[in-house]
């Protein structure tokens, strides 16, 4: 065959290789069209629903950074690996097939001059044997066809040829190839028509003789698999590196965030002097600087408020103390004048006496509140009969038809309490119920044991009034709070329930207010029973509340 034919053969081989590989070669990565985007809010709703199902710990900054780094590394490594795989695979297969086709062409060119123009079966068999002998270590299988004759080497049998290949070698003067899978193994099949020259112009014509080559590509497949394994290892290393980088980045980002979280918790616990170390000039450093400025301003403001509060408390205590002596003298004088005054003069003296008594009571309440604020309130405990003490407190102030009592029998309920403070608690609760509720007022006492096994003495005071307004319920124990602004000049000072709550807390007890379903309000006091004399007294610095309804 001529060099011109060989050149055309090589050009045809490259062209047919591309077409054949795309049609039959398995495992070649192909680009897929991305799915069309769905317009509207559907994807956004789906994304929000998917994020809502993620557990809360996985929504933190560290998991998100880790996921982002891993996804970027995976996409980069897989994309780079796919491109490298495609180029390397193409190069390996191209080199392999070019080498096989060139070797096959040389072998056929060497045998073609000895083949007759019209070969018989023996001629074909001799030709394939010679080609196979020249390449006996390559694992080739050769087949020659001419008309109805077939010759095989080294043994009968050949891969089934596709119609496209048969048509190409019948009509064209160039070698063609095709990759096939036979029993899961890759094979390269080459078809090469034998031509001859005719006449003075050396016209090239097809002789009708076609030589076919079937060669396994196990070695090339091994190279491809080695490349796949190498890409997998590189991807794994890239992912590991991405995880390490993500952890380092998350650590660098989360370190100041954790410090800020600890600082805010300490500030919430009352440590207003907490500050952050500011390093760098990035956004987190600006955030730390802003936190320090906020904390400093908050500390200054709270310090000023505490100073003003302490100054106000000292003022109230000093004024109350200074007013106590003259008010005591005025009360003594008005008591004497009440006995002697008659007519209009007597009425005026009685008004002065009532105002003096109210002012004296307010001063006494302010002195008591000042002692609570200063932490100077003390308990003088004594083991008493609670029911008997409450019974005496009620009998000394109100008539029997005003207050209904339901108390345990004598000696059934004893506890170590401060009798004076228990008397104040009882008097304030019943007095508040009579002023702002409707008689009869009911007082009950009993014992309750909680789940921890602690026994509590329970005192309940109920009335038949309209109850407590819902908006007033959170403020009922605040100082100087009155549920109705229309009673701003009532006989109550607004400190009774505040003092009651402080006395209950001083005993380590609890107090609460509620409305009854049938109407009326109920105040419940719980005092612990069987407490040791050495028990630490309750903190009196917590600001109690007080109100009248």
From TrEMBL:
It catalyses: ATP + protein L-histidine = ADP + protein N-phospho-L-histidine. Keywords: ATP-binding, Kinase, Membrane, Nucleotide-binding, Phosphoprotein, Transferase, Transmembrane, Transmembrane helix, Two-component regulatory system. Residues 318-531 form the Histidine kinase domain. Residues 25-41 have a biased composition (Low complexity). Its EC number is 2.7.13.3. It is found in: Cell membrane. Residues 7-17 have a biased composition (Basic residues). This is histidine kinase.
């Amino acid at each position: 065959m001529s060099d011109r034919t060989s050149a055309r053969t090589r050009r045809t081989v490259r062209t047919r290789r591309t077409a054949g590989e795309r049609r039959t070669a398995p495992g070649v990565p192909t680009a897929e069209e991305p799915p069309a985007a769905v317009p509207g809010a559907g994807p956004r709703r789906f994304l929000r629903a998917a994020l809502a199902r993620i557990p809360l710990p996985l929504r933190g900054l560290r998991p998100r950074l880790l996921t982002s780094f891993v996804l970027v590394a995976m996409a980069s490594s897989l994309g780079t690996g796919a491109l490298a795989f495609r180029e390397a695979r193409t190069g390996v297969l191209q080199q392999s097939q070019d080498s096989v086709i060139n070797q096959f062409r040389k072998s056929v060119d060497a045998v073609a001059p000895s083949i007759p123009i019209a070969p018989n079966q023996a001629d074909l068999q001799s030709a394939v044997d010679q080609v196979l002998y020249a390449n006996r270590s390559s694992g080739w299988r050769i087949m020659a066809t001419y008309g109805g004759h077939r010759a095989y080497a080294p043994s009968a049998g050949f891969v089934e040829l596709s119609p496209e290949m048969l048509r190409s070698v019948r009509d064209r003067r160039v070698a063609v190839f095709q990759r096939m899978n036979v029993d899961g193994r890759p094979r390269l099949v080459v078809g090469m028509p034998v031509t001859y020259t005719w006449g003075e112009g050396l016209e090239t014509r097809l002789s009708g003789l076609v030589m076919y080559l079937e060669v396994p590509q196990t070695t090339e497949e091994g190279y491809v698999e080695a490349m796949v394994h190498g890409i997998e290892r590189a991807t794994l290393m890239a992912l590991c590196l991405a995880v390490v980088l993500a952890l380092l980045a998350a650590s660098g980002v989360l370190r100041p965030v954790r410090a800020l979280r600890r600082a805010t918790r300490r500030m919430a616990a009352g440590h207003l002097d907490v500050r952050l170390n500011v390093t760098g000039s990035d956004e987190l450093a600006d955030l730390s600087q802003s936190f320090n400025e906020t904390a400093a301003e908050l500390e200054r403001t709270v310090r000023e408020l505490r100073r003003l509060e302490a100054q106000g408390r000292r003022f109230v205590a000093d004024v109350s103390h200074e007013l106590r002596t003259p008010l005591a003298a005025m009360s003594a004088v008005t008591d004497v004048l009440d006995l002697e005054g008659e007519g209009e003069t007597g009425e005026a003296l009685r008004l002065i006496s009532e105002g003096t008594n109210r002012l004296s009571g307010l001063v006494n309440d302010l002195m008591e509140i000042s002692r609570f604020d200063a932490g100077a309130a003390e308990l003088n405990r004594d083991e008493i009969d609670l029911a008997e003490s409450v019974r005496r407190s009620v009998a000394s102030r109100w008539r029997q038809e005003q207050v209904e009592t339901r108390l345990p029998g004598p000696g059934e309920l004893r506890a170590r309490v401060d009798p004076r403070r228990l008397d104040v608690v009882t008097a304030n609760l019943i007095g508040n119920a009579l002023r702002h509720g409707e008689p009869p007022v009911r007082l009950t006492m009993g014992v309750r044991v909680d789940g921890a096994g602690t026994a509590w003495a329970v005192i309940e005071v109920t009335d038949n009034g309209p109850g407590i307004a819902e908006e007033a319920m959170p403020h009922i124990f605040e100082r100087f709070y009155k549920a109705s602004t229309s009673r701003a000049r009532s006989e109550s000072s607004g400190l009774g329930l505040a003092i009651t709550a402080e006395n209950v807390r001083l005993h380590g007890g609890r107090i609460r207010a509620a409305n009854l379903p049938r109407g009326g309000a109920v105040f419940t006091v719980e005092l612990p029973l069987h407490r040791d004399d050495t028990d630490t007294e309750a903190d009196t610095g917590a600001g109690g509340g007080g109100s009248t309804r």
